[in-house]
Specification:
14% strand; alpha/beta; seven-stranded parallel β-sheet; 344 residues
Length: 344
């Protein structure tokens, strides 16, 4: 089969493209970033999907396309260009829909996010749970979902994802990884009994492929099974590294208010979604995905995080020299959070 992957130079987009190529399929990436010279497994067309005419023209030259796997998205890390985030995530999705319609492409699979919610839930979160995003990234993803849902003449599946992790996933995780690598204690907010869904990139890639083959449409939630508490998760990582688990608990209310102020002052990389959810329970109910697409996860949260940590340590010097890569392929600056090192 032939797939177009939007955002194929990003963290998950490149993982998905490699997954499909390894399974014997043809893949064309469309990304605003240039192609990786070392990546020979698939072609990358460098363009911005907000340019609808250029996007459709490029895909017409590709030939018959069986599905568009729309994973391109801009995150909210770049505070100076948030207007482009909305254009990319919403207008870009509108152009994907228009292109699928114009070229009679049979399926669009869209990766959305748990950021369309903004509170914790004591029970697993189902597809009918009311959404309520609080920042521009979550709002843009929800707006894109609405476009796909309204386009009844284009068959689409929306997969809402929690944090996607695999070897090579960096971003905010590098703050945690540096604390582990340096043998410092780790911090949880509250008592650490909250649970938070992750998803392995390989399990999400499998779900995207299955969705592209399915006659089903609509919204699906994905996530790992048997989600441990955050305290248990950190303990697993530290034990794997041969360390005696040292975990300290920070007061919930005070920590959230402090992070809110630090974010407003641009002294912390943790945004509104992060500090609101840092001590919350959030586990996706993946029952519908299992039933309709015959999907199941293969890795637990602990296995996923340990895999990502091992990659980070093995490639540390190369990672620090990276330029012009997507947000999840490089680390972030810890900002004032570095002060925790003084008491760790």
């Amino acid at each position: 089969m032939r797939f177009v992957v939007t955002g194929g130079m990003g963290f998950f987009g490149s993982f998905l493209a490699d997954y499909l190529v390894a399974a014997g399929h043809d893949v064309v990436s469309v990304d605003r970033l240039p192609g990786d010279r070392e990546r020979k497994t698939y072609e990358n067309i460098q363009l911005d999907i907000t340019d609808g005419a250029a996007f459709e023209s490029a895909l017409r030259k590709v030939g018959k396309i069986d599905a568009i796997l729309h994973v391109a998205a801009l995150l909210a890390h770049d505070k100076e260009n948030l207007h482009h985030l909305w254009d990319s995530n919403v207008k870009g999705t509108e152009n994907v829909i228009a292109c699928a319609r114009a070229l009679s492409i049979s399926k669009v699979v869209f990766t959305s996010t748990n950021c369309v919610f903004s509170t914790g839930f004591e029970k697993p979160v189902g597809e009918n749970t009311p959404t309520h995003p609080i920042e521009i990234y979550g709002k843009s993803k929800l707006a894109a979902e609405a476009l796909l849902t309204a386009a009844t003449d284009v068959s689409s599946i929306i997969i809402r994802c929690p944090t996607i992790i695999a070897a090579g996933r960096l971003g905010l995780l590098t703050i945690l990884f540096d604390f582990v690598r340096e043998g410092r204690c780790l911090y949880v907010v509250g008592d650490g009994s909250n649970r938070y869904s992750f998803i392995a990139a390989q399990d999400l890639a499998n779900a995207c492929f299955l969705a592209s083959q399915s006659e089903h449409t609509g919204i699906y939630h994905i996530g790992s099974d048997n989600v441990p508490t955050m305290k248990e998760l950190y303990q697993d990582v530290m034990v794997h590294c041969g360390q005696e688990p040292r975990i300290r608990c920070l007061p919930n209310g005070l920590t959230q208010e402090t992070l809110k102020v630090l974010n407003a002052l641009r002294l912390s990389p943790l945004g509104p979604y992060h500090y609101r959810m840092i001590a919350a329970n959030f586990v996706f109910d993946n029952t519908k995905l299992k039933q309709d697409l015959n999907w199941k996860p293969t890795l637990t949260n602990s296995e996923i995080l340990i895999e990502a940590y091992k990659y980070y340590v093995a490639h540390l010097s190369e990672i620090k020299g990276r330029k012009d890569v997507s947000a999840h392929k490089t680390g972030v600056k810890a900002g004032v959070l570095n002060l925790l090192r003084l008491v760790s």
